Amino acid sequence: MRSYISTFSILIGLVAISPGTATAGEILKTSPGADFTWSSTTCFKPRTPTFNSQTQNPAGLMSQYTVKVDAYLACMKKEAQDDFDRAQFEMQQAIERELEKTVTQINEDVKRAASKR
């Protein structure tokens, strides 16, 4: 278990110090102690409507804006979930590769030690 945690920690450390592109959004961690940040790269925030004394039908403009905001938030949620799913899959594959490599190396070390007896 300790080996598994160490391997996982090393992999997290490697991912943590380098920016990377997820499926669509961008995940960044500026330093090992910093929080991860995520930003959308496919969803576009709607412009806030502006009003003045000449604005016709401000309630209608706000209603349209609300629909656009709802679509924007739905887009961001989907993109974030897709990114999370992909990152989880890639992390699992990286862990499995590292564990397989480690087991292979240990087996080779054992075979070499046994052949020297």
TrEMBL record:
Coiled coil feature spans: 77-116
Top-level division of the source organism's lineage: Bacteria
Keywords assigned by UniProt, alphabetized: Coiled coil, Signal
Residues making up the signal peptide according to the UniProt record: 1-24
Name under which the protein is recorded: Uncharacterized protein
